[in-house]
Design brief:
The structure is a homodimer. Chain A is mainly alpha-helical. In chain A, helix 6 packs parallel to helix 17 and helix 17 packs across helix 20.
Chain lengths: ~700, ~700
């Protein structure tokens, strides 16, 4: 019976994609406004397209190389022949998610600005619909990818194993895990490249424009202003989409793999897929609750967005019960219903981490207000304060994830059967991500609103329009903070599930392998040290990349101010394309080293320290990456909002010395929160994925 | 025969203390200079004494409470009755090391300034002799403490077990481990309190003095100037002394504990103690090579200091062979000589980590020079650059420690016998610390030179004297960087040895305990996450502490400038004591929370997650603490030297915009490198020590 239920997965996928399509049509039905707005929007679109074209060409080359490498490995029997294709497919769908999200975002920015000139609510509707396209494209394509692989494997490649269900699911899950690596690689490039692009443009534009030339943000005289707006799209939209696509499918395939050793076989493999399908419907239903009257109060708007998420969560809580009950045959095995608690704990952990992210980064709470006080004694104290705040804010997320893992493990029967407990941990990741459709919609809405504000400024729309887009943007900052916490939390749980799946993969590949995963086993211990260091090394590289690319922008903007007569007076146009081009080239160049670090490290560690060392490295990288990502995201968010808090009138307001100090904090925070921090999420998952794909090679050639 | 050799340990202790005594006499034989110098030195001494008196009173209370707690635990059979006394003894000797070091440092500062007015070499001799007093006091008292405990336990408390050598050594080592906790607790208070004191004074003095009032560093008109100089003594001298005392005895007792399970019994326990005794002689011999002609070239001076360390290392390399050969009875068991490789790898690792610390933080190398370039685009870019540099610099130390652990483990026979491999890891920590006498001497010399510079400035000595003390100080910065790397590296290896000792302790206390130290066991995994987070939380607290205390200093200095007529004109004296008092109170208050975090965490984690969870926590904290400490120390050091590099004339020199940006970097770096970073070293050892002492309690009451 469960077999038939699984047909529900492609149905869910189709529904999500159809819903995304209609949302896109809705967005495109709005007016793009005046000629000037159209023109600006076209420049942004053009820049973003140019960037993605170049990026996908570069990454395409990488994928070709990897395809050959994996093909050779498959030829020598280290991998199933399916793997190279799965790798390409994972990368393709991940890239496609980002691409579509970016397309609609760049189409919606001028429309949001125009709609905002009519009413705040209209503006919200356009921006949120654009966000929904992104959210539902991600989950729609994710489920599509899963369905294609699953059905191909079950009814074509491994149809011959139909008699031995455990063996069949085991082989299927092993093959499916590898398309995660394609998705991860693509996501890493997208996040790192996009993150470097956006922050190089932002930092570069601010350093020369705001600080040296003294012109306001988003001023059309600033040659880097279009690049800055392009950056929001390629970083916060395309990068974010690829990232969460990858968490989404990663958590599902990891849990499918864990279902086998837990002895749940087909039913257990069906649960994560069905949960995702159910989550799709719940998310679609949730979007209908995102509506409000004609009131324009911020709290009301935030409430409207939240309501959508809460409704979706409630629906999932209700629907998850029958899914688990029937899939795991709880009528016969009543103890299995404990898995339901894992779903709940995952969902709750996501909400709580989101809440505490907001608590530590929003100016409506004490931590950020206190941080803004530190600006009174200059830039040094606000920097110390922000880093200290970020570090402190890691305490609660660690406890939340810890409790969630424990609850999931024991509720799912970990005390009696270790493997069932681990399956529960995987399910909690799936539970957290089941609301992804709507969470991502509220999250991706932010950059659209941000762009709309830029367009309003550049097209000299009336001040009230800019006020409205600012209100939308500010709302977007709050949802982005929540979304960031959600991305980090889900990455941690997904990475944990992937580590467990890695162990299972080794068992499958080499049934007699003598594990010694004890933390006092030297290879494990050293792996742990190396893993702990990796997110630091990686962050260093991405930050340096931003720094170098930003320096180039600074030079170019200075050159244009110097060489283009009439630019400062507003009588001549800046050469926007040159800045976009510099950012594009910079991002392409700077993303290579960190991305390769993520791919090469597990192989090198594996060859030198063996399987146990790799497991240690994965555990160390996940723990340290989680803590560092939370720290960087929250420090960055708090600096940003402390600056805004001062701009809204505290401590002397704009232009005062405290404000200047806060700008320093904000600039330091930019690569923290938008480049290094979010890229770490992908790094920790990619490390696991690469380890899984290269498991056969490591087993054969490692020194230990 | 080995039993007789062990008598050599108290002999080594006595020799070290006698040598320290004569060095102290030598220092005191120099002139303190003019009345004004005498007066200033007296103020510093008075401030430092006042601080230590208050600190030791506060800590005394803590020790009384802990004595009662441990007494009650001993009463109920969770501990041997010896433990509470060992705890007090460890704390006492650790505190005494810091106290004596500080006494001589505050006596030597004016003498160094006066000697420098005669010649640079005379200045070096006084400062280095003062450093030697500190270095040899630490190892002398360490060996004394070890000897007292060892002989008391062997010939009094456990004399009855003489028939069963394994059992006897096992009980002895278990009891001895606990005096490490006393030493650790004292060291943590000293490092955190001293670190907060020194940086609050430094940051406070700079913020108002240099930035607001525009007066130079060490200007006597600055009311915080004496507090700043006191800080060098209580932080960099007393704190550092207590810290390394603790690493020193910690590595030795941990290795003694590991000797038992390795099956080496008495001979194995003797090796670390004898290595330390041999190291004492080698260090004394090394000091005689620290001499140079009348040349005043920096490189020659540095060469002189280095020569001492190299000679000592060479002597240890020679002497370690017979020590191991006879103690482990290698004539009969030739394979045991592999332990010798562990000594070498530890020694080498110490040298290499020190070298790379210097590479990343000295302005003679590229990284710091490039960092100073980042000052051209303002404070934000130099902050990003410094953090990025610090993060990048973690790569090599992790690899060095990793290779050292692997070499030690396998060379000592870990492939055939796991426990012997672990013993080798302990020995490598002992090997690294065997040169402590001379390493610490070159390190503790720095703050003395720094103080001498301050006194020269405040007493208006001729410019050439200040130039000489600056040369000494700058040399001190280099040795301090090496010393810091050494402290971090030895802390990591010691902490690893202590984790292994913890596992042994559990086995001793509960022979049938069913370990599951696998990193995929949820309590281990969650412990790992918690442990990874702890150094971040701890750093956040210590940095916030510095911030708050510095704010109070800023307020007080502003008040004095406002209310004391004639202060700015130099016609009235500042109220130095008030600033010292504020720093003292601030440090006392702010050190409580971080110190308690270190003590309470292992107990809470133990009660909730059990022994396996504690082991996970220790591994996570050691790895993350090591990486974070390296990052903070190196970022801070590089900012400091980038600023000095600009002051020496690059990028516009003093007063230029890049210099102002570099000052921001330096100010952020202050708590990084002198408060949070070094305190983490102690935190990771203290966590292990507390876990060991409370092992019995956790075994009895934990949930898991």
């Amino acid at each position: 019976m469960v077999e038939k239920f699984v047909l529900f997965v492609p149905v869910g996928s189709m529904l999500a994609l159809i819903f995304a399509f209609f949302q896109a049509k809705k967005v495109l039905g709005f007016s793009e406004g005046s000629d000037r707005m159209r023109k600006i929007s076209a420049s942004i679109r053009q820049g973003a397209n140019a960037y993605l074209r170049r990026q996908y060409t570069g990454i395409g080359l990488f994928f070709v190389v990897m395809f050959v490498v994996l093909g050779i490995m498959a030829f020598y029997g280290f991998l199933t022949p399916f793997v190279p294709f799965a790798f390409i497919m994972g990368g393709f769908f991940s890239g496609l998610s980002g691409f579509i999200g970016m397309k609609i975002a760049t189409a919606a920015n001028a429309r949001t600005a125009q709609a905002s000139s009519e009413s705040l609510n209209r503006g919200l509707r356009v921006a949120f619909s654009a966000g929904s396209v992104m959210g539902f494209t991600v989950i729609g394509l994710g489920l599509l990818n899963l369905s294609i692989c699953f059905f191909l494997l079950k009814y074509v490649f491994y149809a011959g194993l139909a008699g031995d269900e455990a063996k069949q699911i085991s082989e299927i899950s092993s093959a499916m895990l590898t398309f995660g690596m394609g998705a991860s690689s693509m996501a890493l490039f997208a996040r790192v490249g996009g993150g470097i692009f956006t922050k190089a443009a932002d930092v570069g534009a601010d350093l020369v424009g705001k600080v040296e030339a003294g012109i306001p943000e988003d001023d059309p005289r600033n040659p880097a202003v279009i690049a800055d707006n392009v950056g929001d799209n390629v970083g916060d939209v395309a990068g974010m989409g690829a990232d969460l696509y990858e968490s989404y499918v990663g958590s599902i395939v990891a849990t499918i793999a864990l279902a086998v050793s837990a002895g749940y076989n087909f039913g257990g493999a069906a649960v994560p897929m069905l949960m995702a399908a159910v989550g799709t419907l719940a998310s679609i239903a949730g979007t209908f609750f995102v509506r409000c009257g004609e009131k324009t109060d911020q709290k009301v708007l935030l409430g409207a967005l939240r309501k959508g998420t809460y409704v979706s969560s409630a629906l999932i809580i209700i629907a998850a019960f029958p899914v688990i009950y029937y899939s795991l045959d709880c009528a016969r095995y009543p103890e299995r219903i404990g898995v339901y608690a894992a779903v709940l704990s995952g969902l709750l952990a996501g909400v709580l981490i989101g809440f505490f992210t907001e608590y530590f980064t929003s100016a409506t709470y004490k931590p950020t207000q206190e941080l803004s006080d530190a600006s009174l004694t200059g830039p040094a104290t606000i920097i110390i304060g922000g880093i200290s705040l970020g570090m402190f804010s890691t305490l609660l997320p660690v406890i939340i994830v810890g409790v969630s893992v424990l609850v999931s493990f024991f509720a799912s029967g970990g005390a009696a059967d270790f493997a069932r407990g681990l399956y529960g941990v995987g399910i909690s990741a799936v539970g957290m991500l089941s609301t992804l459709g709507i969470t991502l919609a509220t999250d991706a809405y932010g950059p659209v609103a941000d762009n709309a504000g830029g367009i309003a400024e550049m097209s000299h729309l009336p001040a009230e329009v800019r006020e409205r887009t600012d209100a939308l943007d500010s709302l977007g900052n709050t949802t982005a903070a929540t979304g960031k916490g959600f991305a980090i939390g889900s990455a941690a749980l997904t990475a944990l599930a992937l580590i467990l799946a890695y162990i299972d993969e080794i068992k499958l590949k080499s049934p007699g392998f003598a594990f010694d995963l004890s933390i006092i086993n030297p290879p494990v211990l050293i792996g742990l040290f190396v893993g702990t260091m990796l997110p630091f090394l990686f962050s260093s590289m991405t930050m340096k990349g931003v720094g170098r690319a930003a320096q180039n922008i600074v030079r170019e903007v200075r050159r244009q101010f110097r060489e283009i007569p009439g630019l400062m007076e507003g009588t001549a146009d800046a050469d926007y394309a040159a800045c976009v081009d510099i950012c594009t080239k910079g991002a392409q160049k700077e993303m290579i080293a960190p991305a390769l670090t993520g791919i090469v490290s597990p192989i090198v560690v594996g060859l030198l320290l063996g399987v146990n060392g790799v497991a240690g490295m994965l555990a160390g990288a996940t723990a340290s990456g989680f803590v560092l990502a939370v720290m960087m995201a929250n420090a960055g968010g708090a600096w940003d909002n402390a600056k805004k808090y001062i701009e809204s009138g505290s401590h002397g307001g704009k232009g005062s010395d405290p404000h200047k100090a806060a700008v320093v904090g904000d600039t330091v925070g930019d690569p923290f929160k938008d480049t290094s921090g979010p890229s770490i999420n992908i790094l920790i998952k990619l490390l696991s994925m690469v380890s899984i794909v290269f498991a056969g090679l490591i087993l054969r050639f490692s020194l230990f």
